[in-house]
Amino acid sequence: YRPVLAFNYLGRFDLAEHEPSPGGIGLDRGDTVSGTARLDVTAFVTAAGELEFEWTYSPGAHGADTVGRLARETVAALREIAVHCAHPDSGGCTPSDFPLAGLDQAELDRVTGNGRHVEDVYPLTPMQAGMLFHSLSEPGTYLEQVCLTLSDAADLGARLPRAWQQVVDSVPALRTALAWPALREPVQVVYRTATLPIERYDWTGLPAAEHDDALRDLLARDRAAGLDLTRPPLLRVALVRLGGAQLRVVWTFHHIVLDGWSTFQVLSDVLAAAGGTPPMRRRPFADHLAWLSRQDTAAAERHWRGVLAGLRAPTPLPFDRPPGPAHVTHSASTVDAELPVPDSAALYEFARRHRVTVNVVVQGMWATVLARRGGGRDVCFGAVVSGRPAELAGVDAMVGMFVNTVPVRVRVGADQDLPGWLRRLQADQVDARRFEHVSLARLHRCAGLPAGVNLFDSIVAFENYPFDQDRLAGLGLRIETVAAVEITNYPLNLIAHGGARHADRLTFRFGYDPALFDDATIQALADELVGLLKDVANGTAALVTPPVATAAVPEPVPVGPRPYVAPRTRTEEVVARIWSEVLAVDRVGADDDFFALGGDSILSIRVAARLQGEFGTVLPPRALFDNPTVGALALMFEHPTVETMARLVDRRAGSARDYQL
Fold this sequence. Notes:
661 residues; alpha+beta; 18 helices; 17 strands
């Protein structure tokens, strides 16, 4: 068999810097053409960006005039395509352009338009989907504010705006926004360009004693302004001139696009760029999404079912005012604590000597605090993990939202020696590292807990971020202070910061919901944790058997569908059909509960998008939690005043629930 034509595109050949190849492609060929195509077309792009063709033909099959005419017609057709592409009304994308997104053509058209301004489209990670849900439910949640004060920065104010924009231009995550209305699932959209909003303030004439009040006012106004998650970039910067060649930088961004490690990667690039060093080239966040799509979820679920077997309720916290069934948690207040430098150094030495991380020591002592405060011997809390897989080359330099929250289950008791207990805790976490990408919603299902019962109510994060002070000093810069403001949807979160060197002191920030705790209660928890860590550092710590858990364990709620009642109205039929498709349940009745059928906060976003497409009405994010049955949700759409939807609660299905990321 001899093919009529063979076409070979070789891609781009950079044979010389900005110069086309002389004399054509110049492929080596044999003396005969036996067994080859009657016509060979080879193409490549030169270093100068020109598309070059070589046509090779069999004289016995084609004449020179025929091949020449075919070549000219091909070039003419390509010119027509180029003219069409340059027209303002042309463009568009197909699902094959963004295979990770999972969008159909109609959805993609809504998201990308003519596609000229869009670089990439891909799904959210499970953590990002949860953050989106909570950000829509409670605006201001996961809005981050980082403040740093730079010394010796007299001329930096003029260079920083350009440096910030350079970094935004180079990092896809900083040009990302979200799209979810009228889509089956939310997606991230990376735009080709995004202009960073920068505001400038001059406080040189303001007395130094008034700077703190002015900063609090600036932060409050900035937080009240919020961020539109559908418009890139999801960040902005304020530059404040102070006296004495000092410059204060206030950087606001949404946590949904950046984790803590990425935050300091970006800051390092910005300050380096201000000193004349180009931003570092990094792998795009899309590569992490591609890695996630290849993971074995079945193996991960088997692991977590074993870890969570027998867990019936979250470890109780010492609430001053226990949350009611409709309470929405908002950790808006903080208490700070620290371990003095000598004790911090001794703790690092203890960890080194016993081959454990300081992070594990902090987690072990936090478990001890919870056990002593009424949690009993079986303690479970959440741990923020990096989510950066070691097998993904260059992952430590990537910028995006990688972190996840996974359960840490600890058995506390006096029948164990402290170093051995900590090593076992560390071994358990090393074993879990392969499975730390699993969403909290899926973990909840692995535990078999009833809908509305959280896995845990407190989380621990250990931060030790890459910030090269020596490199900054070489640029003539020095950071005097760094502070961050973060609000989550957990009642209590502990953020420990270890510093870059063992000589640095350990610091702690307790974020808590002031509606549930008094400041004095959190301060007492902080003092107890610091005291335990001092005992570990000084060699006087010993495990004790805590009292039996004092909080009542809730009676299990029946899980699964209720007795089937067929949908009674057209609205109920539509809601039931959408639930059936999203939850992969064969039959959904009017009294079935969304969460008893396997729903969660992430799936609720998908349901809301489908319902908006059917009824043309935006569903409040919390609506499914307040109205979890088909009948109750259908009533919201049938109610004559749609604006009252967020205030409706299904009295037949019981009280509203809180929910967890």
